[in-house]
Amino acid sequence: MTAGAGELLGLFPPGSTTDPDGMLRVGGCRLDDVAAAHGTPVLLVDDRAVRQRARDYAAQLAARWPDSQVLFASKAFPCTAVLRLMVEEGLGLDVAGGGEIVTAAAAGADPARLVLHGNAKTGEEIELALECGIGTVVVDNTDDIDRLEALVPRGRVQGCLVRVIPGVQASTYAAYATGHAGSKFGLAPDAARAAIARIAASPRLRMDGVHTHVGSQILDAAELAAAVAPVAALGDFGVYDLGGGLGCRYTYADHPAALAEYLDVLTGAAREHLPAGARIWIEPGRSMVAPYAVTVYRVTTVKPGETTFVAVDGGMGDNLEVALVGQRFEAAIAGRVGGGEPVTVVGRHCESGDVLSAGVPLPAPRVGDLLAVPVTGAYCYTMANNYNGARRIPVAFADGGSGRLVVRRERWAELLSRDV
Q: N or C terminus: fewer CB in 10 A for the chain?
């Protein structure tokens, strides 16, 4: 195994290795066995690593701030099996929309530990949340208050947080930044004060606290902690939901804060600015799941030229991150990890922007090779689509080597299932 292979393996889930014949093994599963069992493309999740990450988040936050709660941002991977794993580990769930409420319920989540987000919640979604007995609604705007006051049943009081724009400009992709002045999410401090006063005066709503979120894929913990002081300035509350946003290592140049460093910095800011008796919530998503999954494709064509294009049987139908924000991914030939000459890995969809990895070194790629792309555990499943009639891909849990299917591949007939 070359030095390049070792560096590349560092982007795969912990413990990933190669067998004597060179085949990549993730979570105890040989990738050729996974492909043979479930076809390609397939998303393989090292579920034991995800479970350990959930435990680490909960234990390390509690060690620093005992009155705390970790809520998994289910938008990152809204798969029933993944949410069930989080629930089994004692985490609450952040849900953003009706579909995530339904999935959380199917996963066995306690409705009291669900937190509903959204900048454009519909009446239907709020009704669904109220029917399931949701614990907390994050108020993003005054229309949320109007709908809640109209829909909360008489005799019931709904717990609320107010989402506040902290005025923090994060070093991330523009599409991922949410805490800057002018963000579409939340209320500026003066507007937040008015919303807080209105909720506090409402007989059907309970003002539990405030929420903030700086953005996603943020590598510097200080940027995440910078949101604490602005929300603290709004007053003393029982709950301060400090959101999520910690980034992960997609490529060699990424150096995110470690979990311990992030929590040290965040709780340090909390001790400086928040009431000692307050409860802290955090909402990790990407950093909880992204590093612990790999997408396995099969090479369908190799087109030599000024740029050698290696095309696979998936693409932006199962990974929109590259086309959406330009996120960099690395890749490996599953049976020959490391080394090679730069090529551009592209998908099968009718868009020039359907690129999975540009300039990635691959050793003599050929038709039929299995190609493994690491760090696909966040937002790839979430944003899967049917462009060009592609079927959404299956998800398998490594399960210590069994490669257990938890989401099957979409069937051709299901592409027509909504026709009337």
A: C
CB atoms within 10 A of CB 280: 22
For 128, the enclosing helix (H) or strand (E) is helix 123-132
CA atoms within a 13 Å half-sphere pointing along the CA-CB vector of 351:
16
Q: Three-state DSSP class for 356?
A: strand
Strands 24-26 and 158-163: unpaired
Cis peptide before 256 (omega within 30 of 0): no
Question: Strands (DSSP E) along 239-369, which ranges?
Answer: 239-241, 279-282, 293-303, 309-312, 332-333, 341-346, 355-362
Any residues with CB less than 8 A from the CB of 143 and at least 6 apart, and which? none
The one-digit pLDDT tens for each residue of the chain (420 residues) are 444 788 999 999 999 999 999 999 999 999 999 999 999 999 999 999 999 999 999 999 999 999 999 999 999 999 999 999 999 999 999 999 999 999 999 999 999 999 999 999 999 999 999 999 999 999 999 999 999 999 999 999 999 999 999 999 999 999 999 999 999 999 999 999 999 999 999 999 999 999 999 999 999 999 999 999 999 999 999 999 999 999 999 999 999 999 999 999 999 999 999 999 999 999 999 999 999 999 999 999 999 999 999 999 999 999 999 999 999 999 999 999 999 999 999 999 999 999 999 999 999 999 999 999 999 999 999 999 999 999 999 999 999 999 999 999 999 999 999 999
Alpha carbon 372 to its chain centroid, in Å, reads 20
Q: Alpha helices of 74-141 — where are they, by DSSP H? A: 80-88, 98-106, 123-132
**Entry field: residues in the chain:** 420
For the beta carbon of residue 122, count every other beta carbon within 10 angstroms: 12
Closest to 294 in 3D by CA, of 5, 41, 22: 41
Sheet hosting strand 29-30, strand order edge to edge: 17-18, 24-26, 29-30
Whether pTM exceeds 0.90 = yes
Which letter does DSSP use for residue 154 in this model? T
Q: What residues are labeled active site?
A: 350
Provide the β-strand partners of residue 302.
310
**Chain position carrying tokens 């805490």:** 179
**Cβ atoms of residues 283 and 91 within 8 Å:** no
Distances (CA, A) of 132 to 195, 205, 241, 347: 25, 17, 22, 40
